[in-house]
Amino acid sequence: MTSIASLTLDVPDTGAAEAFYDTFGLGAHVNVRAAEVPTTGFRGYTLSLVVSQPSNVDMFIGSALDGGATALKPAKKGFWGYGGVVQAPDGAIWKVATSSKKDTGPAARRLDDIVLLLGVEDVKASKQFYVDRGLEVAKSYGRKYVEFATPPENVKLALYGRRALAKDAGVAPDGTGSHRIVIGSDAGSFTDPDGFAWETASV
Question: What gap in Å lies between CA 116 and CA 150, rounded to an integer?
């Protein structure tokens, strides 16, 4: 089973970015590197922190806002659960969410999953591209959404239509330039049909 070991974000100030992400407790799953690459608008992906209850969502979003993030969607209840969206100072978009609508204990800074959602032009074609590179499909909803199987303790990967993903994040879908993210995995080095770069990394 193909595994994603880490994600590397291109940021203008590594010190500031590392201080910001320390509040998320992401460990070695998310790294930063200094890069001044041209980018405007939506970068075509979002990162999701999945937690167990609403108070944990509020804790993570509160820490992010205190660290300089911008609120894109305030945390609130929805059909699927409870969550909100923020944009980090470096420009990356983060969603913090839970499928639970009620707390079952004290708030805790604990993550269940980190999910990378790629906004793609053709979900079906991108799904096949990744299947051909050894990823196994866990869930698939036609041309709308695909989630790949990943081992525990690894970053999860999902595909969503670019416009639908931008709408979910609360931003306009238009954007140009670098995605400013590199995906490290045991699948090898390549660039996918939507320009997302993958590099070999030990899992």
Answer: 12
Tokens 């990744």 sit on residue: 130
User: For 144-191, what is each residue's pLDDT tens digit?
Assistant: 999 999 888 889 999 999 999 999 999 999 999 899 999 999 999 999
Q: Which distant-in-sequence residues (6+ apart) come within 8 Å of 114 by Cβ? A: 26, 29, 30, 47, 48, 49, 50, 155, 156
- Does the pTM exceed 0.85? yes
Three-state DSSP state, 87:
strand
Reference 95, options 116, 112, 79, 124; nearest CA is 116
The per-residue b/e assignment along 27-40, b for 16 or more CB within 10 angstroms, e otherwise, is: eebbbbeeeeeebe
Give phi and psi for 82, each to the nearest 5.
Answer: -145, 135
Give the distance, in angstroms, between the CA of residue 201 and the centroid of all CA atoms in the same chain. Answer: 18
**CATH code for 4-200?**
3.10.180.10
Rounded CA-CA distance 190/130 in Å is 11
- Report the alpha-carbon distance of residue 113 to residue 122 in Å, rounded: 25
8 A C-beta contact, residue 182 and residue 6: no
Each domain of the chain, given as residue ranges in start order, spans 4-200
Residues 156 and 114 sit within 8 Å (Cβ to Cβ)? yes
